């Protein structure tokens, strides 16, 4: 539609070196690098392209950042899409990395001006919504697998066990399932919108 506004959207994944090289294991480094590349080069643009009320074209995406031209009926439509995109990236990376975004009105004959304003918006997003990345190394794995063994031992001793479990790695959950084999077990997934999680974290002010 002719009355749509055009915006230059810039995105960035903070701490990508720490995420990719947060382990000494070559297989894990390759896996992290592949996931980052897929999210950066495919998922972000694909997500925006499928958002209602938006028309998106990619300028470039790679190396943990990207620029996109987005047409939106209303500014609020774009803001809502970017909020959902952040949640989408967190889910795809299993909490391994997050996304910060900035945008500014786009003028074809003044790309440099639009870019400067969009980058200022990006820095504001970094300051107001800092992305924390939790990396688990060898010692963290030992603790998780030891906890899994303890959970299974309690259950095998005849105790009813309720566990509040955060599966930072798929391998942890696979290990727990294996150790609980033969024991009646119920897994309950709690999925909460990012905005609600952020509100609760601010309210409890403990971390």
Structure overview:
With 207 residues, the protein is an alpha+beta fold. Helix content is 51%, strand content 15%. The chain contains seven helices and four strands. It has a four-stranded antiparallel beta sheet. The chain is elongated, with a radius of gyration of 21 Å. The N and C termini lie far apart (46 Å). About 4% of the residues have low confidence.
Largest sheet: 4 strands, antiparallel
Rg on CA atoms, Å:
21 Å
Strand content: 5-15%
Termini, distance in Å?
A: 46 Å
Low-confidence stretches: 23-31
Average of pLDDT: 81
- The count of strands amounts to 4
Number of discrete helical segments: 7
Helical amount: 40-55%
Order of helices and strands: EHHEEHEHHHH
Spatial order of the strands forming the largest sheet: 2-3-1-4
Indicate the structural class: alpha+beta
Envelope shape: elongated
Task: Provide a concise account of the structure shown.
51% of the residues lie in helices and 15% in strands.
């Amino acid at each position: 539609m002719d009355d749509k506004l055009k915006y230059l959207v810039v995105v960035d994944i903070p701490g990508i070196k720490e995420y990719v090289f947060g382990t000494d294991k070559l297989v894990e480094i390759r896996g992290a690098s592949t996931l980052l590349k897929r999210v950066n080069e495919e998922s972000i643009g694909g997500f925006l392209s499928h958002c209602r009320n938006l028309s998106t074209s990619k300028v470039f995406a790679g190396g943990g950042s990207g620029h996109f031209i987005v047409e939106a009926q209303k500014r609020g439509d774009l803001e809502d899409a970017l909020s959902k995109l952040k949640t989408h990236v967190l889910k795809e990376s299993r909490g391994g990395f997050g996304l910060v975004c900035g945008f500014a009105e786009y003028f074809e004959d003044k790309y440099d001006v639009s870019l400067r304003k969009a980058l200022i918006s990006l820095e504001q997003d970094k300051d107001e919504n800092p992305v924390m990345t939790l990396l688990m190394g060898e010692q963290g794995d030992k603790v998780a697998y030891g906890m899994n063994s303890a959970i299974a031992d309690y259950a095998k001793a005849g105790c009813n066990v309720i566990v509040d479990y955060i599966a930072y790695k798929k391998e942890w959950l696979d290990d727990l399932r294996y150790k609980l084999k033969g024991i009646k077990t119920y897994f309950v997934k709690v999925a909460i919108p990012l905005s609600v999680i952020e509100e609760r974290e601010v309210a409890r002010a403990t971390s």
